């Protein structure tokens, strides 16, 4: 997968495993298609903490 997960909303730290994980909710078929892709991740969402606040104003 060629994408920058560092800025993604779904890329979170798991303190039990002591590593970062993708927490996007994918079923088995979606996960398989994602691992076979060579392009950018279709589930990427910018991790902007203020996006919801801007939408409400």
Order of strands in the sheet with most strands? 1-2
What level of helicity do the residues show? Answer: 25-40%
Cα-to-Cα separation, first versus last residue? 36 Å
What's the mean pLDDT score?
81
Task: Give the amount of beta strand, in percent.
Answer: 5-15%
Shape: globular
What gyration radius follows from the Cα positions, in whole Å? 13 Å
Q: Mind describing the biggest β-sheet? A: 2 strands, antiparallel
Q: Which runs of at least 5 residues are low in confidence (pLDDT < 50)?
A: none
Strands, count: 2
State the oligomer: single chain
What does this molecule look like?
The chain is built from two helices and two strands, in the order ββαα. It is of the alpha+beta class and about 55 residues long. It has a two-stranded antiparallel sheet. The longest helix has 9 residues, at about 30-35. The protein is globular.
């Amino acid at each position: 997968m060629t994408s920058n997960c560092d800025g993604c909303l779904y890329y979170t730290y798991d303190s039990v495993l002591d590593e970062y994980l993708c927490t996007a909710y994918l079923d088995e078929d979606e996960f398989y298609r994602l691992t076979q892709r060579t392009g950018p991740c279709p589930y990427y969402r910018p991790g902007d903490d203020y996006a919801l606040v801007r939408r409400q104003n």
